[in-house]
Structures are given as structure tokens and as C-alpha cells.
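In the previous chapter we treated chains in isolation. Here, by contrast, the input contains two separate entities that must be folded as one system, with a combined length of 424 residues.
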Amino acid sequence: MYNFDVVRPSRIADAVKELSDSTESQPLGGGQTLIPTLKQRLASPEKLVSVAGIDEMQGVCKGDDGSVCIGGATTHATVAAEAGNYPALAATASHIGDPAVRNRGTIGGSLANNDPSACYPAAALASGATIKTNTREIAADDYFQGMFTTALDEGEIITEVRFPVPEKANYQKFVQPASRFALVGVFVAKYADGVRVAITGASNDGVFRWTEAEAALSSNFSADAIDGLSLSGDDMISDLHGTGDYRAHLCGVMTKRAVAAAV
Amino acid sequence: MAQVSMTVNGKAASGEVEGRTLLSSFLRDELMLTGTHVGCDTSQCGACVVHVDGQAVKSCTMLAVEAEGAEVATIEGQANADGSLNVIQQAFQDHHGLQCGFCTPGMVMSAAALLKDNPKPSETEVREYLEGNICRCTGYHNIVKAIMAASGQDVSAIAAE
């Protein structure tokens, strides 16, 4: 790693100021992706602004509208333990990485990174979550803009993520056993006004909504409803773990499993 | 350089570190607590697992300055006060839960974290909890058996393959 300074502000406003002081500064959540990235010298910030000590970005709470609100610096382990009002979300958090990673990694860090195989982007997109930053609120549909790309501006911090709680939901992850990321992961969420299906791990463009499956499931919420639907493998990730066609096939399989398991 | 202070195995510890100094490096190179092993250095293998404020973390993927003011526990602090092995360590010995021993500090610290939250885990729960701890010798069966035994459960039915 190249060297850098680390600051640990205790308020959002102080973190924003630290980030605006230098263009070579970067927020640090739990560091479970960023620290390995720094070790590989794929990033070389002069200053890391740790948000772990900001109390107002910690914890899970219930919003006035019944939604589940999660502070941006909340760890996966805390979401798994405390997001019981949205069981499928808690279950998703409980299978990210491994226990030690879950004790450090944060929801804000995961969403800001937008790894194309991460679990939280699928949960946020399928839930139509709202990503709240220090300056604005961003709808999940506008937030994810391709592999490792989001609507966040430089120096913008995810302070909270708000999830409307669906009637039924489930996340099915086909685990890549070495990395424990999703080879393909499908999050299905059934709301009063329709079903949303978000898929991670598969597309070269990162997380995406499978709109044909959403339409079919909105009129008939059963695994059979997507019989005959398929996705093209042409724009899917193809690597030594699986071809694009293999991932495209898995999208259908995991969607069916998620629908069957949704509670 | 920054000054960092923490409690390690119940004793105050402090030192000068760079921003990039990893907790694992601080423990091993500054405090000379070399029981915490660095296997992969990419947060995959879990040999470097220590407890920070009671939670298992990979010390190779945490900066030393992030542990400022924290209570850190390493393998060196696990033995009983009289120097004898604690119940988890003794179970690893009794059930042959190690061969080369490289992964063992991380295995023991992960096991301790699991049993603190879940005193009587099922075999499946033990195996799932160890997803982030890699052993290249034993094939895990005896490690799982040792942890089950340390939790006071009958392990006679668990195959030692």
C-alpha cells in the first residue's frame, strides 16, 4: 500500500468537510473492499475519511411509513441481527462474505462500491430503496449506473438507506465458493403495486431489473409464471467460474427459487 | 505518523503507526504478538482473525488506527490464567484439530467468537461460521469436532474422516 492519512470524524458535517478539503481523499466504511484494493495499489488516496465513528450513521430503525432505515455505516452483522422487520433483507446481510467480514463491512460501503457481484445492490434495487446522502435522496432506480458506477458525486456520503418493506420477498444467491460473492443472486420483492426482480452477479452492466419477469410475476406470483422467459447470455459476465449463457440460465433458476421461497 | 492506543489482551498498548499500518502488522511487528498469523493478506483465509471489542475481525483488513481505543484480544490472551490451554485450545489438541498449526490462531479466535454468541452450535452452524477460515491440512472435520466438543456437546457420533 502507498501511505495515506486517516481521519476519524464523529459527525457527518465534519466528514464532508474532510472530503472536500482534498480531491485525493476517499471515504472509508468497513474497508473490506477498499483495504484489499489499496493493497493492490489500485487506488492511492492521500487521505481516508473513516465514517465508522459517526453515531448518526449507525443502526437500524423503523421509519414513520413502516420502512426499514439503515445508517450508512451499519455493518452487515448489525443488519442481520436488527433488520427483523424486513426478514429477507436481514437474511441477505447474514450471508454476505463471512462472519469476520460482516463484522466490518457496511451497507454504505457496499452500495457506494456497487460491485457487480455484491448482494446489497440487488436488495436495494428490488426493494426500490432510497439512498440518502449528505446532500440528497436518490431512488435506487436512478442510483445504480453500471459496474462500479453510481449516481454519487465525489465526496458524497451515503448516510442512510431506506427500504420499503414488501409483502413477500426472498434473496437467492448462487455462491461463488471461493469469494462468497454471488455468481448469480436474485432478489424478488412483492409489493402491493407489483413485483420487482433485481439480479446481481450476472450482467456486465452490474445489478439490473428483469422487467419481463416482473410483469409475469406481478400478474401471477408463482415460480411457473416465468416459464418460457429467458435472458440473453451475450451481455453477461463470462469468466472461469461460468459462461454468460450459464449465468443467464441461473438467472431463471434463482428467480424461481426466490419466488418459491418468498415469505 | 500517528499515535495509537488500545487494550490488547487486557493490557494497555500504544505505538506510532502510519495510516496504512494494518492491525495485524501492529500486533506482530510493534507488539511482537506473532501468534496472529498473516496467511493470504487478502482477507480470504482468516489466519489473522482477532477480536476487536468482542467481535471477530480479520486484522489484515483493518487499519491499526481504526482500533484506537478498542479492546483487542489475540490468541496470546486465550490461555487460562495459570497458563494451561483454555477449553477451545484443549479441544483442538484432544481432537487433533490441527496439523501444521498455521490456521489455528484464527480458527481458535473464530471458534471463541462463535461460542460466545451461540454456546451450543449445530455442526452446520460451526461449518458455516468457519466459511472465512481456511485450513489446508485437516479438511475441517476435526476442527469442527473440536469446536463441538469445546461447547460441551457429545462428538462421538461425528465422523473423524
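Residues 30 and 115 of chain B are 30 Å apart (CA to CA). The longest strand of chain B covers residues 2-8. Compare these points with the single-chain example from earlier in the chapter.
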